[in-house]
Amino acid sequence: MRSVSVIGIGETKFGKLTGQTIRDLIKEAGEKAIVDAGVRKDQIESLYIGNFNGQYLSNQGHMGPLAVEVLELGHVPAMRLEGACASGSIAFRQGFMEIASGLADVVIVGGVEKMTHRKTDEVTEAIASAADMHTETGVGMTFPSIFAMIAQRYYHEYGDCRDAMTAVAIQNHDNALLNDDAQLRKAVTKEKVESGFPIADPFTVYDCSLVSDGAAFLVLAATDVAQSLNQENIIEIIGSGQAGDNLTIAKKESLTGFKATKLAAEKAYKMAEVGPEDIDLAEVHDCFTITQIINCEDLGFFEPGKAPQGILEGKTAIDSGYVAINPSGGLKAKGHAIGATGISQIFEVVTQLRGDAGERQVKNAIIGMNHNIGGTAATCIVNIFKKL
Amino acid sequence: MRSVSVIGIGETKFGKLTGQTIRDLIKEAGEKAIVDAGVRKDQIESLYIGNFNGQYLSNQGHMGPLAVEVLELGHVPAMRLEGACASGSIAFRQGFMEIASGLADVVIVGGVEKMTHRKTDEVTEAIASAADMHTETGVGMTFPSIFAMIAQRYYHEYGDCRDAMTAVAIQNHDNALLNDDAQLRKAVTKEKVESGFPIADPFTVYDCSLVSDGAAFLVLAATDVAQSLNQENIIEIIGSGQAGDNLTIAKKESLTGFKATKLAAEKAYKMAEVGPEDIDLAEVHDCFTITQIINCEDLGFFEPGKAPQGILEGKTAIDSGYVAINPSGGLKAKGHAIGATGISQIFEVVTQLRGDAGERQVKNAIIGMNHNIGGTAATCIVNIFKKL
After folding, report:
1. Is the pLDDT of residue B359 over 90?
2. Residue from B57, B71, B82 to probe the interface with A (highest A Cβ count within 10 Å)
3. Is A275 at the interface with chain B, CB within 8 A?
4. CB–CB of A337/A297 below 8 Å?
């Protein structure tokens, strides 16, 4: 396979972006990425866009050609990819594979979601479509209840980790304070997190990720093509893996470790010829605080059951020198514009590896990772990046 | 690129399948395809599923892992592809490219849609999400009105083609009479078509495709791998092209010829090293009768403005010896289970090239094509197939 690199990045702020339409969000993030890449629009050969649920939330599907029209890309093949909250990373991976296989030299990948114009119960119902209609959502389960059950099971197997969940929330909020694009830029205290509005035991509202509008885009190119364009800031994709699982929670092998993450990570590490100890920073899928804990174990940063201790020891902080987790603030505080999330994670990883992350810069960052799951970890993509 | 072939096919009947869930439809069509291919499930390396609007219609997204669970495919990467009415063909093409590039040997691609449980106005609104919310559907346009306007423009440029639109309806209904999987199995007369319930001038209800439930799946394999498995019935994909266009009708170069079709066909013909004169049969996207006429011109079967005459002369009939169009009955009479449509078109082409089409068999069929568009031809995929 040919080496592929990220040569351009762009994103909108995440948040309640009243007055900005889906078109506006695509325009802003997509144009930024193209300008950042320094390519001409006629060099772009195809477009992949992740979007989770524009049809339910805004009656807007067919976002491939919508984005092509907005970004004025002519007649390139375009399509929407959907894998629940992993939709963005799926779009990224299809673009990556098209170049890796030699079928294209330059493609644009992106993601968008517009959610905040709908009422909370409507958003909850829209998100529930990532689970099974017949045996889960149709009988009243929602994602907070599913992941709360996962937290309860984690407590049962490894002991209460309320302290570590709280530490995750505090840390991600602290990181988001340093990120201009983040939705929630305020510090939280242990007391505030643990006495927050109850959502599904043991979660308070501070254990849950945000409802966000936003878009993010990346321009990918064959590394040799990027070099011939005299690109600076070439961030190579050195590993990529995707794996899946049964959709429903009832058919999982385990609730306290996600098989799809483990398999996707295994593939990505193998391809990159690195291990967890080589990762300087990782944007991981913190849809809930417990998920960040489980991810840190599944990705090999800590042994099973040991992430809470590691987190409480500060090993996942930006300046820990061990592994910086979610320096952007994560889904928890940067925000979770679902279709854009995976792409926005990569935006952060690239920003860090370029050394452009300002106050939240992870020192000596050489290798970074993004990890994105859909539904109850029924879809997982892990990518590993390195500054060329 | 490696040669890729279709080695297994399966579909449900199309129609109002009350009592069959999305899961049931996937199970039936997917298992049929896997059995037909004669592969073990653990040989299947990934799954691509086309679905247009399960989220709006059934609150069910994330159909990649749903299908993986139903078909018991373990942890393979899976994803949903959406490109409006071309969703099925997009899923097919991504699977094709994964094998063509050497990244996989055997994949399964499919499509599903469940529509008939919703009221007509809800279905119309769901379908409208394939157009632009802001400038089209949001101001009251629906697809019948968009394509009626296209028909009016065709009349303006080339003269009234009411007779040919009627002939398309009659022919597709006649063909569906010979197809057990078809939804509408009854002949219609010229008088019946032209005096049918008015939808959008010049369309009567008989100019419009159907609202359908259904699923279809295909197993694809590298041709050399298929041969080593001692497969019979290997149908090779000799050409494939995808192209796009602006989403909105206001930004099209022409309304009486679709640029995306022309570009996709050009790529597919070039790759296959054949021309329109070599195609024995084609399943084309007849969402409305006028669309079939325009497609026949865009694909090169007739000169611009000349398809009506050719159709009236019987040149698109199954037994014409010129080019058999929609021997299955097409979207018009076989049915239009949107996400499944492109896959079901290929099901028909493969059935014909295998010589298994019974009463509707196109004699001496060697090369077949499917043509699938999304929205107002903002997405188009053309594939060409040949019996090995």
Report:
1. yes
2. B82
3. no
4. no
